[in-house]
């Protein structure tokens, strides 16, 4: 199904200044895989923003953030029009989200001699889990863990260092990054399956005209159904990123 042209109300809601100001999270290495000749971000996430701007008939300005938490916080300042970020209930108070356009499995890394073999084994009294603070999977763990303790640190590198140096019981993260971490720690293994899948979506401030989020949701569904998301994943070599299912 072809994506209809945006209404004037949708364009005004998504690009009120005449330029689409798109917030990009630099910390997700699957969605931002490099930089262009001018130092701007390249990858699936920036290209999703560029594709939307083309549909709206406006220029695009990519605003970069070092973390998803910083991107989410900035929504109340009015500096961005769309944000490419994991859709999480904790962020939905001020951000209206689309359905996901891509997913990334989140799981645990443990030492080779660890008795842990399942996700249930991790969520036990006395267990300590290293995790990057305010990552989408960290927010999920905050809501769903019942017994284990989260040791939250500012970055992915620091979460791996905390796991090793503090001899924690598990390291939570996205499977592609954990694959790399496992190569740095002899005998380490990654649990099968996933405790959640981070839902990479697009969002816009909730105080905008609803025509904006309605068109944004239609754009994301079209990008998945048309093969655009799959093409971008392949073009940028984002191994570990998968196309999300259609919105229910």
Describe the model.
- Strand 2 and strand 3 form a beta hairpin.
- The protein has helices at residues 8-14, 44-56, 68-73, 119-122, 136-144, 156-165, 175-183, 210-225, 228-235, and strands at 19-25, 34-35, 41-42, 59-65, 82-86, 95-97, 102-110, 128-132, 149-153, 170-174, 189-190, 196-205, 242-243.
- The longest helix is centred in the C-terminal third of the chain and has 16 residues, at 210-225.
- The strands form two sheets. Strands 1, 4, 5, 6, 7, 8, 9, 10, 11, 12 and 13 form an eleven-stranded mixed sheet that branches. Strands 2-3 form a two-stranded antiparallel sheet.
- The protein has nine helices and 13 strands.
- Helix 1 crosses helix 8 (210-225).
- The protein is an alpha/beta fold and 248 residues long.
Give a count of the beta strands, DSSP E runs of length 2 or more.
Answer: 13
Q: Which structural category fits the helices and strands?
A: alpha/beta
The biggest sheet amounts to: 11 strands, mixed
Content of β-strand:
25-35%
Which residue ranges are poorly predicted, with pLDDT under 50 across at least 5 consecutive positions?
none
Pattern of helices and strands: HEEEHEHEEEHEHEHEHEEHHE
Average pLDDT, rounded to a whole number, is 96
Report the end-to-end length measured between terminal Cα atoms.
17 Å
Radius of gyration: 19 Å
């Amino acid at each position: 199904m072809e994506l209809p042209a945006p209404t004037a109300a949708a364009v005004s809601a998504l690009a009120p200044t005449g330029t689409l100001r798109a917030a990009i999270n630099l910390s997700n290495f699957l969605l931002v895989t490099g930089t262009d000749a001018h130092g701007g971000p390249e990858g699936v996430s920036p290209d999703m923003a560029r594709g939307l701007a083309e549909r709206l008939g406006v220029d695009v300005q990519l605003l970069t953030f070092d973390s998803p938490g910083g991107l989410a916080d900035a929504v109340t300042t009015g500096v961005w029009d769309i944000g490419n970020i994991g859709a999480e209930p904790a962020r939905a108070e001020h951000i209206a989200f689309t359905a996901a356009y891509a997913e990334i499995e989140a799981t645990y890394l443990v030492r080779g001699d660890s008795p842990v073999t399942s996700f249930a084994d991790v969520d036990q009294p006395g267990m300590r889990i290293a995790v990057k603070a305010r990552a989408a999977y960290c927010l999920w763990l905050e809501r769903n863990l019942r017994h284990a303790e989260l040791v939250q640190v500012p970055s992915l590198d620091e979460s791996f260092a905390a796991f090793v140096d503090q001899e924690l019981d598990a390291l939570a993260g996205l499977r592609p990054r954990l694959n790399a971490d496992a190569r740095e720690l002899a005998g380490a293994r990654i649990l099968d399956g996933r405790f959640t899948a981070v839902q990479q979506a697009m969002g816009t401030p909730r105080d905008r005209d609803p025509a904006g989020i309605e068109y944004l949701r239609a754009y994301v569904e079209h990008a998945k159904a048309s093969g655009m998301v799959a093409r971008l994943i392949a073009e940028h070599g984002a191994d570990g990123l998968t196309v999300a299912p259609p919105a229910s």
